[in-house]
Amino acid sequence: MNFNATIKTLDVDDDTLRSHLQSAEIPTLLMTVAHLSQDMSVLKDAWRPVFEFGVVVNRMSESEEREARELCLRKLAEFRDRKMQVPSKPTFDQLHQMATWLIGPQIEPFLPLVSEELVTNDQDLRQPRWTRQQIAPDRNFHVAIVGAGESGLVAALRLKQAGVPFVIYEKNHEVGGTWLENTYPGCRVDINSFFYSYSFARKIWSDYFSTSQDVLGYLKEVAREYGLYEHIRFNTEVAAMHWDESRCAWDLTLRTGATEHTSRSNIVVSAVGQLNRPSVPDIPGQKDFEGVSFHSARWNHAIDLTGKRVGIIGTGASATQFIPQVARKAAQVTVFARTTNWLLPTPDLHEKVSDSTQWLHANVPHYSMWYRASLALPQSIGILDAVMVDPNFPPTETAVSAQNDQLRDLITKWMEPQFADRPDLRDVVIPDSPIGGKRIVRDNGTWIATLKRDNVRMERSKIDAITERGITCANGADYEFDVIIYGTGFEASKFLMPMKVTGRDGMDLHATWDGDARAYMGMTVPGFPNLFCMYGPNTNLVTNATIIMFSELTAKYIVDAARLLLETGHDAIDVRDDVFERFNERVDEANALRAWGFSRVNSWYKNSKGRVAQNFPFTAAEFWRRTHEVVATDYHFVDAKAHQVAVDLDLEANEAA
Ligand SMILES: Cc1cc2nc3c(=O)[nH]c(=O)nc-3n(C[C@H](O)[C@H](O)[C@H](O)COP(=O)(O)OP(=O)(O)OC[C@H]3O[C@@H](n4cnc5c(N)ncnc54)[C@H](O)[C@@H]3O)c2cc1C
Fold first, then answer.
1. CA distances in angstroms from 459 to 99, 311, 335, 448, listed in the order given
2. Is the CB of 612 within 6 Å of ligand 1?
3. Residue nearest atom 3 of ligand 1, based on CA coordinates
4. Given strand 478-480, what is the order of strands in its sheet?
5. In whole angstroms, what separates CA 341 from the centre of its chain?
């Protein structure tokens, strides 16, 4: 595949163009035409969309839309007939004008971040602007990345571009992480794929919200296209890592099958994900169950669920995706849910991208880039404001602010008509918690339709025990099942587990954290020099931006740390205690004032100590600003006695970088 292919001309007649423009997203089309024609006047005030709750709503009448499409047709025809040059990236001023037209003045702080999302094929602003060859050609320097999910892959790419030798250790047989392991029916992204993909590798997707297979296919293509496969050691689990003080390097213990071996690197990047180790609750009697049971991330495809009695524990993001699929086959489905999730109305959740829309992406210069911008601009802001606690409101379990209450009303109004024929479900399904207290789940009406099926029931009582034949509940209900499926999520707060990580002075990372993982910007921990986490503590995003965007920013920061070491000649950096503490205090204060920190609802955003260790409570613009480059004064330099580290160069992959 050729990502971000250059489109040099527009080579079709007016009728063809007119017919394709019918399916164009109006704001995207207008921004594309403004850019191509360098004429900002096409962004008329009267056509300005409305930005509310993280979404751009087009308020144009049918006749205005017709007028806008005709204007765009004329401008594009002129662009074609006059053989005008495709301009490269818009200027910052042009982006500013377009973004303000689309969103309003509140977009201003996000512009430097979104500007980096506008990748023309000749400009990828997050690519390192230096190489090891230029700044430290004689220095042995090596990076080990743990994990080949989307985070590990982007870190690898950036190191490769900087000419820094690296290897990726991956416990699985293939890249993809989340998207390799989650094969349950109905698994798909819940962020539009044109945004949940790398900024530097845009793809024309066939679904707006792609299936896990398609995301996996994309990550494989990225790994192939950028030559990353040859750097990956598959079926190799990092069991432990130990900081060797005298050499200032990490010694890694690697496990491949029954064999253990070691390797050494200057920097370790942990890209092991937050949602990689399935969580199965400890329920009495679990082992007694005589039927089949499995976790959603370890789907047992050998079991045909047709005609089976199925018990499903959990109603989180995965469960709401697979329960509708299971209900179509099974004789009876019982869903056990202690709490429920708010639904985010998403009509196009299962919609295919039409041929005409795909044509526009492939044939109109920069349309694809502006479509991504039309997603990145509103979603970088998202609904963070609507989940902030207003102490004067006063906040309750119903709503934490006036805005939060407004959003609750909006979504309730969308849900309520769906209960018209089943009023009994209303109070069972509409959450007691404020919006943002738990993960919000996208839906297009499928979820409530599924719960209304004759063969589906929801049980809100606590599970008491699993028996030989099924599940018994605190309310005395006793169910018999052939299959039990755990939709119970992941060990999200057990960061970097089960790796044993030993830092300076023999410090054990997990003992230090004591079940309450913290890091500076989710990445660095005092006493663990040159260890960088991706998707680490407090970097989960639930109301704004995407994890992939944060991975790109984190990778940029980590590669900048490598630059700092190569430029200064120091061996390692160790984050200062006061910097780490101050950052975490701010995070905790802010998280306490977000719906997920305020609400008493049970959620995976909180760890066993009750602290929110998952979520990033600030804006994406703040993450961008703080990861833009490493501030050297945030760190101590650490140097070995024998200054140059003799890294393990038996790895051919290292040499090839
Ligand atoms: C079902 C599901 C749906 C999701 N949907 C979305 C979505 O729509 N939008 C969104 O933004 N996010 C979503 N997420 C979150 C998702 O996890 C991230 O978006 C992203 O995939 C994380 O990538 P990662 O590379 O950081 O971690 P992962 O994808 O989890 O990859 C981690 C990799 O590290 C490897 N690994 C772990 N430990 C070791 C070890 N010790 N040694 C060697 N290798 C190791 C694993 O095998 C894995 O390949 C979803 C998560 C799940 C589970």
1. 46, 10, 6, 15
2. no
3. 189
4. 463-466, 470-473, 478-480
5. 19
The rounded percent of the chain whose pLDDT value lies above 70 is 97
Structure tokens at 595: 């719906």
Q: Is 133 exposed, middle or buried (0-12, 13-18, 19+ CB in 10 A)?
A: exposed
Whose CA is closest to 98, among 44, 60, 142, 141?
44
Region of 390 on the Ramachandran plot (φ > 0 left; ψ -120 to 50 alpha; else beta):
beta
The gap from C-alpha 588 to its chain's centroid, in whole angstroms, comes to 22
Q: State both tokens at 54.
A: 């993280």
Written as six digits, the tokens of 81 are 């007939």
d(C-alpha 61, C-alpha 67), whole Å: 10
Pocket test for ligand 1, best of 150, 175, 178, 207 (most atoms within 8 A of CB): 178
Residue 278 has pLDDT above 50, yes or no: yes
Structure-token pair, residue 281: 């609750």
Stated as kind and residue range, the H or E segment containing 527 is none
Q: Are strands 531-533 and 267-270 parallel, antiparallel or unpaired?
A: parallel
pLDDT classification of 121: cutoffs 50, 70, 90: confident
Helix ranges (H only) for 382-419 are: 402-415
Count Cα atoms within 13 angstroms, Cβ side, for 310. 28
pLDDT of residue 2: 62
Per-residue pLDDT of 217-263, as tens digits, reads 999 999 999 999 999 999 999 999 999 999 999 999 999 999 999 99
Q: Which atom of ligand 1 is nearest to the CA of 172?
A: 47
Is residue 24 classed exposed, middle or buried when 0-12, 13-18 and 19+ CB atoms within 10 A define those classes?
Answer: buried
> What is 244-283 written as a DSSP string?
ETTTTEEEEEEEETTEEEEEEESEEEE---SS-SB-----
Which backbone phi and psi does 368 adopt, to 5 degrees? -60, -40
Pairing outcome for strands 478-480 and 483-486: unpaired
Please indicate whether residue 470, judged by its CB atom, sits closer than 6 Å to ligand 1.
no
As a whole number, mean pLDDT of residues 281-289 equals 95
Contact 312/334 with Cβ under 8 angstroms? yes
Q: What is the pLDDT of residue 641?
A: 67
Q: What is the pLDDT of residue 614?
A: 94
398-427 pLDDT per residue, tens: 999 999 999 999 999 999 999 999 999 999
Which residue type sits at 177?
G
pTM above 0.85, yes or no: yes
Q: Which atom of ligand 1 is nearest to the CA of 184?
A: 1
Residue 644's pLDDT is what? Answer: 43
Q: Above 90 in pLDDT, residue 650?
A: no
